Amino acid sequence: MFVDSPLFFSRSLLAGLDTRMFLSYQNRIPSDSRVLVVSNHRSFMDAPLLMAALGRPVRFACHHYMKQVPVLREVVTQLGAFPLEAPAQRHQQFFKQATELLRMGEWVGIFPEGAQPMVKHTRPDRLTEFQRGFAHLALRTPVENLVVLPVAIASTEEVVLPTVPLQVLSWFDPSEPMFKKGGFHPVVVYKRVNVLVGRPRWISSSDRQAYGGKQAKAVVEELLTTTSAEIAGLLRQGCY
């Protein structure tokens, strides 16, 4: 029951918010692999939505401030997420935690756009720039049968609510530059949303050999580009 509680919580949240989810390309979900789920990110609903769509718990990395703010802290705990550390230790701790989870056979989820689309409202069909951390994680993690699974969250009906002033969040995480700006942190609530599973990309031994040599930059860039392009294409398909 403990293992399934994040999935139960996710399904209950979607039901409570009266969210209608439609899943496409379910046959692409790996059944016997170590999986790194990569997706676009606009709403607090993204992690539970992906768990409900994939039908299993996924350990998502989330922003540092989420473990500082009451209520949010309880939500990420229920979801089994692992909040990132403050900026000085963020990268080292992220790789350490995510690698250990993958070694244990758990699925790990990454939002390479970071928190920017959460703080500044963006269109459902648009991606912001991907950070490279997920590609480095996939190529350096020493586990067999690891797959990067791109997934697109394409909202077709939603409600956007202004809630907490951004500067209030700086009380909890003064290291975050985004919280020093004016305005409100928007809350996007999906009412109808398409979840489209992309083509899985298995990490091969040749990929890891290239990453350990002179081709490291090229293999990281290739994985970054193909994953973001796959999600962008699925977004266009799901939003229209």
What would your notes on this structure say?
- This protein is of the alpha/beta class.
- Helices cover 38% and strands 23% of the residues.
- It contains 9 helices and 8 strands.
- It has helices at 5-16, 46-54, 72-79, 90-103, 116-119, 133-140, 166-169, 205-211, 216-239; strands spanning 20-24, 34-39, 59-62, 82-83, 108-110, 146-165, 184-197, 201-202.
- Strands 1, 2, 3, 4, 5, 6, 7 and 8 form an 8-stranded mixed sheet that branches.
- Strand 3 (59-62), helix 3 (72-79) and strand 4 (82-83) form a beta-alpha-beta unit.
- The radius of gyration is 17 Å and the shape is globular.
- The model has no long low-confidence stretch (mean pLDDT 87).
Care to give the gist of this entry?
38% of the residues lie in helices and 23% in strands. The chain has helices spanning 5-16, 46-54, 72-79, 90-103, 116-119, 133-140, 166-169, 205-211, 216-239; strands spanning 20-24, 34-39, 59-62, 82-83, 108-110, 146-165, 184-197, 201-202. The mean pLDDT is 87.
Topology overview:
Blueprint (H helix, E strand, L loop, with lengths): L4 H12 L3 E5 L9 E6 L6 H9 L4 E4 L9 H8 L2 E2 L6 H14 L4 E3 L5 H4 L13 H8 L5 E20 H4 L14 E14 L3 E2 L2 H7 L4 H24 L1
Parallel strand pairs: 1-7, 2-5, 2-6, 3-4, 3-5
Antiparallel strand pairs: 6-7, 6-8
Helix pairs in contact: 1-2, 6-9
* Biggest sheet architecture: 8 strands, mixed
Instruction: Flag low-confidence runs.
Output: none
Topology order in helix (H) and strand (E) letters:
HEEHEHEHEHHEHEEHH
CA(first)-CA(last) distance: 38 Å
The number of helices is 9
- Mean residue pLDDT: 87
**Which class do the helix and strand fractions yield?**
alpha/beta
Strand content: 15-25%
